[in-house]
Every structure is written in C-alpha cells, then in structure tokens.
From TrEMBL:
Pfam families: Aminotran_3. Its EC number is 2.6.1.18. It comes from Marinomonas piezotolerans. This is Aspartate aminotransferase family protein. SUPFAM superfamilies: PLP-dependent transferases. CDD domains: OAT_like. GO terms for biological process: biotin biosynthetic process. PROSITE patterns: AA_TRANSFER_CLASS_3 (PS00600). Belongs to the class-III pyridoxal-phosphate-dependent aminotransferase family. Its cofactor is pyridoxal 5'-phosphate.
Length: 439
C-alpha cells in the first residue's frame, strides 16, 4: 500500500485509468534513471514502454536536466504571442533536420492532442485561403488514435474512445490495415495495400471538393502497433494527390527514432503534407508538441495574410514554444543525433523482431504479434467476452515481476528506451513469455 490517504487518492481523477482498481492497490512510481523506475517500495522496474512512448533516451539524462535547470534560471516564461525567444527558432530548425525535406515550417503546441487540433484547423483554413471553403470534412482510420481532444476523437477510430462523447467533427473513416491472414507478420505485410483504395469510395460518397485532409498514423501505436502494409501509405499519397486532399501523418509516436529512422515518413518512404509530433521532442521531461508543415502551406498563409501587422493564423497556445520545453527539446534532439539512436534502433530491429515473435509459442491465447523498429504489439484472445481482461492481468503480473508494459484493449504494447541493451530485451521477453504461459 502507499502512504497516500484515501482522500488524497480520491482527489485525483486519473486519466485513461481504471481509477477504482488503481486506488485499491496503487502502483506508485517514485523515481527513474536510465531504463528503470523505482516504485515506492524501492523495487526496480524496467520501463517497457519508454514512459508513454516519450522517453527514448531513458530517464534522468544529464544534458537534458542541465538544459532545463539553466533555462529555468535564465528565462522561465516568455509571452508566446507577438514576442519571441531565441530557443524556439533554434528548436524549429533542429526539428526540420528530422523531417522529410520540404516540411520546414514548425508550429509549437503543448501536446499531441493540440498538435492534431492545429493540423486539422490549418488544413481547413488552408483550403479556405485557396478559395476552396467547402473542403472541411476529414478522413481518419478505424483503430487510429489522434489524442483526447474533440477533433482527435472525431478522426480517431478506437471505439471505446468515441462512444461516450456524442457528436464530433464531420469525419469519416478508412478501414484498418489488418487484413485477415496477416497475423504474426514480421514487419510490413505484403497483403493489404489495397485497403487504401477505400479512400476512393469515401471520395465518391463525399466528393473531394468537401474533404480537407486524410489523417493517419504511419504506424498505429495506441491500438497496439499496427504496421502499414507494403505500398499502403504510397497509395494513400497517390490518391490524395490526384484529388487535391492534404495528407497528414500523425507521428506523435513514430517521429524521432522509434521506427529506426528520423520519422515514420522516412522509414516508410512517403512524404505527407503535414506531420504532427510530441512525446519524444523533449524526451518526456516537459510537455511539448509541434506540427511540421510543408512550406507551400505556410507561404499560402503569408501571401493571404493582409497587412503585415495582422495575424496570418489566429491560432496558438499560451504554452506554445515554452522556453523550458524548447531548451529540453534542443538537448533531447541533440542527444538523439549525437548518439545516432535512430540508426541504433534500425540495427537492433532484427534482434527485437525475432525476440518478440518468439513469444508466439508461449500461449494459445496469443492471436497476433506485430513489430516495427523498436515497438511491438501482442493481441490476446478475449476471456469470457472480456477482451481487455487478459492484457490487464498480464500487465499486473509483469509489474509484480518488475516490468512496466502498457495494456489497452485486447493488446499488450512494448517499446523500451532506445538505449536498451539486448540482455534487457531478453529479460523483458522472458518475463512476458512466463506471464503469457499462465493464461
Ligand atoms: C498518434 C498520437 N496522436 C496523438 C496523441 C495525443 O498526444 P497527447 O496525449 O500528448 O495529447 C497520441 C498519444 O498517445 C498519439 O499516440
């Protein structure tokens, strides 16, 4: 048990959590260093999801800590609107080094959800500036996750995140990319790229003159690491080009190394018009998100901006380009580059792939395993009509064994820090194998 009182525990309504279950027997994290947490009993726990896909560099990184503490003492806050501080411009340029060429205009936000909101608003406004004000609908994808805002849940496609909330934005959905027969595929499936053609049906139904943008995660993270089939993203790109529809990649999880590349766009060889990002920008030390736009989008706003003292885009957040987040972002992205971590993940991905697929034989309850870069999702069959039960039980057993893994819906997700050693992958997989074998 924790030292917290019942009243203290009850006072905090925890996000995306089973509050009643958690508060009965709280799992309290007290500190973190490298790839490990310590809980409030002093137990060492391996971080099997890099925080929430945030901390690829591991925890307690000296250069980031130092950048943040220096920044706190130098400039704690500066107004985000109409005035600036140098680090936001330095960080914007640094981010472009990770983006595909041409996506070189960076807007700062405070989270992934705000990044998605920004991308969708700009997509609509862009078409209006170009004289196509009817282009307002969005196309997302089944099993997509685009954050917790009203716009994010509207284009998102995880049913449990939508059903409570009623009417959202005018959004429609492509089918997911999990074609039957592709279970246990290592990396990208050869089957399923034709699922992108469902976009043509949606265009027939709604007409391209009414559609602003398609938004997809290049690899779906939150639904359990769903990897795009070969050729799928390229096909989406072709159709968007043919019909004058913007293509947005939500790279809140896939940008900055996780895929063994600077971005998902780079890993999969397809360049969208807009990329949303967050999580890994500051290595999770402080909230920050960003959106990369292709230059033509930015230029359109500048050209149609009216007098130059006027706002070209009436949009932004009090915490856009927060100086402490910018300092953390500069330190974190420099570390990624100096340690060549995207390349390290690429080199390690074969080992990871073999390790995660070796779990298949540990239980008949495993119905699928998927992997890419340093990420994997394992689907478990439902127990008596409760699809989320087994993943919960596995995650609790793993916590007891000294490993943090994420559970959600019918999947277990694992994505350890980029600095993880092979021996640590072995320990994680062995523990998971033992856990699965008891199902
Ligand atoms: C692809 C994607 N988009 C958006 C978000 C939302 O980010 P945040 O929780 O920072 O708002 C997430 C979070 O997991 C995500 O994975």
């Amino acid at each position: 048990m924790s030292n917290l009182t019942k009243n203290q525990l009850d006072s905090h309504w925890m996000p995306y959590s089973g509050n009643r279950e958690f508060k009965r027997d709280p799992r309290i994290i007290a500190s973190a260093d490298g790839c490990y947490y310590k809980d409030n009993h002093g137990r060492k726990i391996f971080d099997g999801l890099s925080g929430l896909w945030t901390c690829g560099l591991g925890h307690n990184v000296e250069s980031i800590n130092e950048a943040v503490s220096n920044q706190v003492r130098t400039l704690d806050y500066s107004p985000a609107f109409q005035f600036g501080h140098e680090k936001s411009f330095l960080l914007a340029e640094k981010i472009t080094e990770f983006m595909p060429s041409g996506l070189n205009r960076i807007f700062f936000t405070g989270s992934g959800s705000e990044s998605v909101d920004t991308a969708l608003k700009v997509a609509r406004a862009y078409w209006r500036k170009k004289g196509h004000g009817t282009k307002t609908k969005f196309i997302g994808r089944v099993k997509g996750y685009h954050g917790a805002g009203i716009s994010g849940f509207s284009v998102g496609g995880i049913p449990a995140n939508r059903t409570l909330y009623g009417q959202g934005l005018d959004a429609y959905h492509l089918p997911d990319t999990q074609a039957p027969g592709t279970e246990f595929t290592k990396g990208m499936s050869e089957i399923g790229s034709d699922r992108a053609n469902a976009l043509l049906d949606l265009i027939t139904l709604h007409d391209a003159s009414n559609i602003a943008a398609v938004i997809v995660e290049p690899m779906s993270g939150s639904a359990g690491v769903i990897v795009p089939p070969q050729g799928y993203l390229k096909r989406l790109r072709e159709i968007c080009d043919q019909h004058n529809i913007l293509l947005i990649f939500d790279e809140v999880i896939t940008a900055f190394g996780r895929m063994g590349a600077n971005s998902g766009a780079e890993a999969f060889g397809v360049t969208p018009d807009i990329i949303t990002m967050a999580k890994q920008v500051t290595n999770g030390i402080i909230p920050m998100g960003a959106v990369a736009f292709k230059q033509e989008i930015y230029d359109t706003f500048m050209e149609h901006g009216g007098h130059d003292y006027m706002l070209e885009l009436p949009h932004g957040y009090t915490y856009s380009a927060h100086p402490i987040a910018c300092a953390a972002g500069l330190a974190s992205l420099s570390e990624l580059q100096e340690q060549q971590l995207p390349q390290r993940i690429k080199d390690m991905s074969g080992y990871w792939e073999e390790a995660v697929h070796s779990l298949r034989s540990s239980s008949d309850c495993i119905t699928d395993i998927r992997n890419y870069g340093l990420a994997a999702g394992i689907t478990l069959s439902a127990l008596n009509g409760q699809p989320a039960r087994r993943p919960y039980e596995v995650a609790m057993d793993m916590w007891a064994k000294g490993f943090y893994v994420r559970y959600g819906g019918d999947t277990i997700q694992i994505a350890p820090p980029f600095i993880t050693e092979r021996s640590e992958i072995d320990s994680l997989i062995n523990a998971l194998g033992e856990s699965f074998s008891t199902l």
